[in-house]
Amino acid sequence: MSEPAPAVRPVPGHQKDRYDRLKESFRQKYGTDPEFFARAPGRVNLIGEHIDYCGYAVLPMAIEQDIVIAAATTDDQKLTLNNVDPSFSEFTTTVDGFTIDKSQPRWFHYFLCGFKGVVEHCKIDKPAGLNIMLEGTVPKSSGLSSSSALVCCAGMTTARANKCSLTKKELAEVCTWCERYIGTEGGGMDQSISFLAEAGTAKLIEFNPLKATDVSLPEGVVFVISNSCVEANKAAFAHYNVRVVECRLAAQLIAQSKGLEWRKLRKLGDLQAALGVSLGEMGSIVDQLLHKEPYNREEVCRELGVTSEELQETSLSQNTKDLTTFQLHDRAAHVYGEADRVFRFKAVCDEKPSDALVQLGGLMNASHASCRDLYNCSCDELDQLTKLCIEAGALGSRLTGAGFGGCAVSLVPADKLQAFLQTVQTGYYDNDPTRSSRVKESLFATQPGDGATFFVL
Predict the structure, then answer these.
(1) How would you class 141 by CB atoms within 10 Å of its CB: exposed for 0-12, middle for 13-18, buried for 19 or more?
(2) Chain centroid, CA 322 distance in Å
(3) Cβ atoms within 10 A of the Cβ of 206, count?
(4) Catalytic site residue 214?
(5) pLDDT value for 1
(6) Euclidean distance between the first and final Cα of the chain, in Å?
(7) How far is CA 415 from CA 8, 46, 133, 301, in A?
(8) CA–CA distance, 375 with 378 (Å, rounded to integer)
(9) What's the CA gap between 98 and 109, in Å, rounded?
(10) For the chain, how many helices (H) and strands (E)?
(11) What is the CB-side half-sphere exposure of residue 277 using CA atoms within 13 A?
(12) In sequence order, what DSSP letters do the residues of 269-315 get, joined into one string?
């Protein structure tokens, strides 16, 4: 059976008021009703951070928070983009007359990424114009994939508006690729879970080829998301793409040392496959061949036998082309360790040993320590928050998403949930006016949600 396209369903009863309000906002702005709604959820990654772009599997689940677009086609070749949140300004352009600013990304640029990606993939000569009204409940720059959910929602909206039939997997791959328009070199986790998620189950997402496998989470626990309220926009800050490049260079230096064609290797996962060894053995190879001190640009060029200009062409990206130092050992050590933790996490969920919850919590804690100490993608607030979550009764707690701010996810016994929430609220949110004002959207339990869907009223 072929992979299906996103489902088209009536608006569920418990969501009808929300969609009625969005429909009314659309009507007030454009004078007509929307033709359809597109919904793409955010996600929380339970384990497997910063490894999708290295070719390794991750283990996320979709959350209830989402991006919803009310859309209607027009014949004027214009895109008119509005947001129910008045702090996001209207944007109008023609279907072929826009540019995407990588240096100052704004909300509508993410829509344009999805639009442009689908138009090019489907080879649409004359795209339909669109009137759009958007509502989002995923906190922005929180590590819950608000930006990718918007790209996904835009991509599926564009496909439906132009009668371009794409499966969920095709949409996930197109939307992963087209985020490069805004400068993000992601690996595909966010887009894949947004399209492939199913209610009630997390997913092991594997790449090349894209594959999603159900992972049944243990009973008696819930996953709690807590937002540090430190915003981190991965497209606006180079930190994310620096990590991508450091992993690429680590793979290439090891490949060169092992006599492989290093120019053809861009992912640590591909390096492991080429060497034909286990994840544990890759960790030992990293220790043997890469020194812990940062590499300077001259040393990398000398090891690879290239000029600085050639390095820029073969290995760097637009917003990392001027880097002069690279932390290679610790980045590679994190990736191979984290990839192993993902498969161990899934194995515990599958096998359900008597101490399953303790094992899962330990893997989450180890993941956070690795993100903090080897990948340097945590921050003081996230470290404080995860420590508080453990003290409040969580079995495990870790940053989730790209890091540098954003959210933590914690594994909490269901019978301790209310006490846990109160302790974390008191200890992290109530003593800060800004955090306290956002606590309702920042601290909540979640269950695995459904993937991207079209709705009609």
Answers:
(1) buried
(2) 26
(3) 17
(4) no
(5) 39
(6) 29
(7) 37, 20, 40, 56
(8) 8
(9) 9
(10) 16, 15
(11) 14
(12) HHHHHHHT--HHHHHHHHHHHS-SSPEEHHHHHHHHT--HHHHHHHH
Cβ atoms of 234 and 240 within 8 Å: the answer is yes
Q: Give pLDDT tens digits for 196-214.
A: 999 999 999 999 899 999 9
CA distances from 132 to 38, 83, 328 (A): 11, 8, 44
What residue ranges of the chain have pLDDT lower than 50? 1, 235-236
The token duo for 221 is 């626990």
SS3 279: helix
Q: List C-alpha distances in Å: 413 to 59, 88, 224.
A: 20, 39, 10
CA distance 114 to 105: 14
Place of tokens 């489902």: 7
Single-letter amino acid, residue 379 = C
Report helix, strand or coil for 185.
coil
Token pair, residue 67, equals: 């991006």
Which residue among 17, 52, 75, 190 is the active-site one?
Answer: 190
Residue with tokens 């490049």: 245
E strands, 189-319, in order:
202-206, 211-215, 221-227, 295-296
Distance CA 59, CA 189 (A): 9
Give the pLDDT of residue 318: 83
Tokens 């956070």: give the residue.
Answer: 368
Cβ neighbours of residue 97 closer than 8 Å, sequence gap 6 or more: none
Tell me the C-alpha distance between 126 and 392, whole Å.
Answer: 56
pTM of the model: 0.92
Task: Calculate the alpha carbon distances from 287 to 268, 331, 391, 416 in Å.
Answer: 14, 12, 34, 41
Note the maximum CA span of the chain: 67
